[in-house]
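Issue 218. Parser rejects a valid record. Input:
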Amino acid sequence: MNVINKYLIGALLLATVGCKTVTTATGEKVDLFKGTIIYDVEVVQNVDTAFEKNKKALFGNEMYLTIFKNGDIQRKYNGASTKGYDLYYIDIKNNEVIEKYNNSDSLFVRNASTQNMVKLNDLRGSQEKLVILGYELKDLAIGAQAIDAKDNSRKYLTLKYWYAEDLRIDKSKYKDVNDELWNYFINKSDGSVFLKFEIDYFSYKVIYTAREIRPNKFEKLKEKMSEEAPRVKR
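Output the parser choked on:
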C-alpha cells in the first residue's frame, strides 16, 4: 500500500462524525481508530520438533484484529487447524478475556487484570526504518516472562511492538487489561495499535504483520460468543 492509500485511510477516519481525537507527540490531532486490521501470521521454527510444528497449526496464517466502538477487542484467527485458535476477545465491561478454539464450542474465560506475562527489561530497538502500509513505525522491545496458569512456571521470551503514532485507540479503556502485557504496550505507545508484533520464545516465534486497514468495519461473531455457549473459568 502506498502513501496515497494511507491518506485515503486518514480521510475515512476523519469522516467519522463526532469521533474523539487525540494529539500526537508532534502536536497533530488524529481521530481514534475503530475498525479492523488484517495481519499475515508467520510462525518461524528455530528448532525442528513436533512441539514447534504444532504452533503453526495453532496460530494459522491470518488474523483479523477488530477494535469496537465500546473498546472491546476481537482477534479472529484463520487457517488454524481443528485444534487451533478461533477467537480471542477482550470484554471491557466485564474485564474478561475470552478464548475459543476451533475444536470446541466452549468459551474459556479469565480475568483480564491477571498478569500472564511480566516485563523484565527493555531491549534495544531496531535501527532500521520500517514502513508498513505507508506508515513509518516506531518500536518497543522488551524481555519478559510468560507465566503458566497451571503450575506458575515461567518461560523467558522477547516481545517487539511496532506502531504508528497516528493510528491510535483510547488507551484509558485498557488500564485494567494486563493480559499479554496489553496495558503496558498501549500506554508506552500512547495508545497506538501495532502494525507489526513479534513474540519470540527462542524455539519458535510468531510474527503478525499488517496488510490491510479497514476503518469502521466490524464483524462481531455473536453466534460464537453467545451467552448460551458453555463457559469455562480459568
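Fixed in the parser; the record now loads. The longest helix spans residues 3-14.
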